[in-house]
């Protein structure tokens, strides 16, 4: 996904997605200073957005390249959700303030009064009490976290498979407050990933269904395999479910990793609230019940300079942060992994951001690089964008909770192989000691 997240608004009538509108007319901008005029401007924006298709992909002007990072210009987006049973009976303002804590209570009061928050497509009083299954829409000015501005290298292109080197910091899963749109947006994710760098490929073959066949975490770089047909995607899926795929990564870790092969068999427990995993090993006692899932990873040292080691990692299971937490368990965590380098880190639940960003605030930043064949974009496009007077992120370009430059982990996917196929990705610069 080259855009940092899906950047379309949903039309509740046609059930399609639409691109962002970067600005309104001068009259609308002036009118937004009053509540009544803000409602009119919001309606005008929503009514004027045109459908985005493969023939009308995002333009380069939709992005801002600044200090080695690629930003998506802030855009208007409509979140949709339906009232859950536990929300029923709350006022519309209290519901948002309690369940969607990314914005202050006063914002939600203004959003309801201005018509940016609607119930069943209609404006309501701030004292309106929501009922189960009511449809709620929230029209926002959305700011996305930036990603590193690296090109995506095409590694191999066949009739039914495309492999690329994904840069670190580019997410393959939607982050943030997506309500009930999450499943739909995840389904469209691989298509969005291809829009900017592979537009010509997609336009030439618009009938193809292109999808990523495996996950690669946001801060991890390396091999990404994309199936270009539904039948090929199904073949990959069957092999994954049958346990026939082998995965290989490299990591740069702290210290001198032991020679020879080392297999870590430690359950991995993922704390959804904090976004962090822990490794668990039983003591043989029947009274001790492990919460985590059975996990296993094989490690082998490739090189060391006495300060760091380059380690080959082969996970036999696929738990969240498995390689990261298993390396921590060995006493040799990834050398720039602030989430697992130590225990003195900020907590996601108190920081209101991702676990990795919260951890980064507690430590230092180390330089990293993306794929060896990638070329950094030096061009800097104008950082001007439309300021929304109601937006809680404006006039900043990034969202709240994002403090600045973010770098990728020293963890890179090198190889995927199956019964009769194998795909590889070059090593990154940091893997050469």
Sequence stretches where pLDDT stays below 50 over 5 or more residues: 1-35, 41-56, 174-207, 348-353, 362-382
Indicate the overall shape: globular
- How is the biggest beta sheet arranged? 10 strands, mixed
Report helical residue fraction. Answer: 10-25%
Number of helices: 12
Rg over CA atoms, rounded to whole Å, is 23 Å
Helix-strand category: alpha+beta
CA distance, first residue to last residue:
30 Å
| Strand composition percent | 15-25%
Mean pLDDT: 75
Count of individual beta strands: 20
What's this model, at a glance?
With 433 residues, the chain is an alpha+beta fold.
Description:
With 433 residues, the chain is α+β, with helices and mostly antiparallel strands. Helix content is 21%, strand content 25%. The protein has 12 helices and 20 strands. The strands form 5 sheets. Strands 9, 10, 11, 12, 13, 14, 17, 18, 19 and 20 form a 10-stranded mixed sheet that branches. Strands 3-4-8 form a 3-stranded antiparallel sheet, with no helix packed on it. A 3-stranded antiparallel sheet has the order 5-7-6. Strand 15 (267-271) and strand 16 (276-280) form a beta hairpin.
